[in-house]
Design a protein that fits this description.
Strand content of chain B: under 5%
CATH architecture of the largest domain in chain A: Orthogonal Bundle
CATH topology of the largest domain in chain A: MetI-like fold
Helix content of chain B: 55-70%
Number of strands of chain B: 2
Number of domains of chain A: 2
Distance between the termini of chain B: 23 Å
Radius of gyration of chain A: 24 Å
Number of domains of chain B: 1
Number of strands of chain A: 0
Shape of chain A: globular
CATH class of chain B: Mainly Alpha
Number of helices of chain B: 12
Number of helices of chain A: 12
Oligomer: heterodimer
CATH topology of chain B: MetI-like fold
Distance between the termini of chain A: 12 Å
CATH architecture of chain B: Orthogonal Bundle
Order of helices and strands of chain B: HHEEHHHHHHHHHH
Radius of gyration of chain B: 24 Å
CATH superfamily of chain B: MetI-like
CATH class of the largest domain in chain A: Mainly Alpha
Structural class of chain B: mainly alpha
Largest sheet of chain A: none
Strand content of chain A: under 5%
Structural class of chain A: mainly alpha
Chain lengths: ~300, ~325
């Protein structure tokens, strides 16, 4: 493929200018580039080490089995937040994944790109991907009020906010996965008499599943760390029960971290640091799953 | 990817079929029109989201502007919506705080993001590139509330106060901006890397043939050629910085106050939305509706920024 040849040519070219790269100026420049590349890693290490050290006294079972407590901050726990986050993420996935995949299939496989409305949908998607997350919170408030739900901070409101937030991410990654399926697979199917929908459903979509799964999980791992939209929908932070349904009040781990950090007592800060490590582990697990799926199932044609 | 294919991979959409002799698909079966309508409806959800955002923000905002004149909101310099004795609704303190924090963030993120992009695009071999890119993108995976905690408990007390001896308060715009800058590095790096990589090889070849080394080629040939794409990346990073909430809510402060000094604590637009939504203002009151007025302003600002960025990306895609 042309792109492959281009990268190969680039490699040759990269070595071509190398003998003139030994001046002090260009070595300093290269050093700066290396620094900017690894600056992020430095920050991450500082962040994880300082947080882990601060939270170290609280790595105990109380942290995940007990509810939050203002009376005994040294034993406060994040059970409600952890369960609430898992619950709201499951509902979010159930709402956003089917809609996201359907929208991506329309845009990639069926849409006539010459039509203005399809082009409009594309530009609109690009913009939505960059709308601030608090705005999705405000939208979710209006939406559930319209549905006749006036109670604040329910699982359903949180899931609506997070679904709308990650829908653009899911659509964009699904489109990339579908686009990577080679043309021959579709042609072969249609040559055997299948309709375009049968081809999409039986050939294209199954071939794209690893890519879709990876993208979806990454989108969900972004949603699980979001606190701002949940704050806007009025999610309470002092919840002392497990969420038990769509219409149940809940709290989420990032929100509990936010409210615990805002407390002035030292014990709360230590608990927040320990909870951050729990949140990072949850996100790391999701990302690990995504990488595992990609390595295990992704095919290259 | 190793085999050479004659037909390009891609969807058999009508537009894509233009170069293709025949449409191979079988005749549609009954019921398939319903499925296709369903898929189209799913795609429309994204448009409805935008419409929903506009309506959801406009309705309470219009109510708000019935009580508070627009010029008082956009021109006033004192923001005290919850002061029942003497309320003032001048949004400038919030806007200036957002501005200060965003500028600090860009000062951090633009050089570092561009540096990483230049290395990945111009120096790294394809294999290195594949391995290093996820490392840069790791930063985007950390939740913003975690960054906020980091700014509040590490950057301010340790880095700013102890190491650099800067006289800053417990909450300040500087720490929030620095950490926010780190958070948007991946946005700027990955988009500008795309733009740099899209610059045709012949430009580099010409430069090397004239005796330039890689630094000169990168800075004087590739970077100027990719300028519109790099600008789009920076502008998208700007949009992210303006809209980010949890870092500024935790680390920048909660006192609205008109100042351009990043060492002071100040409340940004998103910070105000976060703190007010969590409070106990009665729904429908003027002080509750401020949420939507500020939200609308935020949405309009980011919308303008995003449209500029999308247009710039389109320009460099057309150029090459």
């Amino acid at each position: 493929m042309a792109a492959y040849a281009e990268t190969a040519a680039k490699t040759v070219l990269a070595t071509a200018g190398r003998d003139r790269d030994r001046t002090v100026k260009s070595l300093v420049f290269l050093g700066l580039l290396w620094f900017s590349l690894f600056f992020g890693v430095l920050v991450l290490v500082a962040l994880i080490v300082s947080t882990a050290l601060e939270g170290a006294p609280r790595f105990d079972s109380d942290l995940i089995t007990r509810y939050s407590s203002t009376l005994s901050p040294e034993r406060t726990g994040f059970r409600a937040g952890i369960l609430g986050s898992l619950m709201v993420i499951l509902v979010t996935a159930a709402m956003s994944v089917p809609i996201g995949i359907a929208a991506a299939l329309h845009l990639e496989e069926f849409a006539n790109k010459d039509r203005w409305y399809n082009r409009f949908i594309e530009v609109n998607l690009q913009n939505l991907a960059a709308v601030p997350s608090v705005v999705y919170g405000l939208l979710a408030v209006a939406f559930v009020t319209l549905m006749g739900i006036h109670q604040r901070g329910l699982v359903i409101s949180g899931a609506v906010a997070l679904s709308l937030l990650i829908l653009p991410v899911i659509i964009i990654t699904t489109r990339e996965a579908v686009r990577a399926v080679p043309r021959e697979i579709r042609d072969g199917s249609m040559a055997l008499g299948a309709t375009r929908w049968q081809t999409t459903w039986k050939q294209t979509l199954p071939s794209a599943v690893p890519g879709i799964a990876t993208g979806t999980i990454l989108g969900l791992s972004r949603a699980i760390g979001e606190a701002a939209p949940l704050l806007i929908i009025g999610t309470a932070t002092a919840i002392r029960f497990d969420p038990n349904g769509l219409m149940s009040q809940f709290t989420a781990l990032p929100l509990e971290i936010y409210s615990t950090t805002s407390q002035s007592r030292e014990d709360f800060r230590v608990a927040a640091a320990a909870a951050i490590i729990v949140l990072l582990v949850m996100i790391l697990a999701l990302n690990g799953l995504a990488i595992f799926i990609r390595n295990k199932f992704q095919r290259s044609w | 990817m190793t085999t050479t294919t004659t037909t390009p991979a891609g969807p058999p959409s009508p537009a894509g079929l233009r170069g293709h002799p025949v449409d191979l698909s079988g005749r549609s079966r009954p019921g398939e029109a319903v499925i296709r309508a369903g898929l189209f409806a799913a795609a429309l959800v994204s448009v409805l989201t935008t419409v929903g955002i506009v309506i959801a923000l406009l309705r309470p905002a219009v109510e708000f502007f019935r009580d508070v004149p627009v010029w008082e909101f956009l021109g006033g310099t004192r923001w005290a919506p919850h002061d029942s004795g003497n309320p003032d609704f001048g949004v400038w303190p919030l806007v200036s705080a957002t501005l200060v924090i965003t500028v600090v963030a860009l000062v951090v993120a633009v050089p570092l993001g561009l540096g990483a992009a230049m290395y990945l695009s111009e120096y790294a071999s394809p294999k290195m590139r594949r391995r290093l890119k996820p490392i840069v993108e790791l930063l985007a995976g950390v939740p913003s509330v975690v960054y906020g905690f980091f700014a509040l408990t590490f950057v301010t007390p340790n880095l700013l106060q102890k190491v650099l001896h800067i006289d800053v308060g417990f909450t300040n715009a500087l720490a929030a901006g620095l950490v926010l800058g780190v958070m948007i590095i991946p946005t700027i790096a990955s988009l500008s890397e795309d733009a740099l990589f899209a610059v045709p090889l012949s430009l580099r070849q010409g430069s090397f043939a004239m005796g330039a080394n890689r630094m000169q080629t990168t800075l004087r040939v590739v970077l100027p050629a990719a300028m519109s794409g790099v600008a789009a990346a920076v502008i998208l990073g700007l949009s992210r910085a303006v809209g980010e909430t949890m870092i500024v809510a935790l680390a920048a402060g909660s006192r609205p106050h008109l100042s351009l000094d990043p060492r002071e604590g100040m409340q940004a637009m998103t910070g105000y939305i976060a703190s007010t939504a969590g409070g106990e203002n009665p729904v429908g009151s003027t002080s509750y509706n401020t949420l939507f007025a500020v939200g609308l302003l935020l949405f309009v600002i980011t919308l303008i920024i995003n449209i500029i960025s999308i247009a710039l990306v389109r320009r460099y895609r057309q150029e090459y």
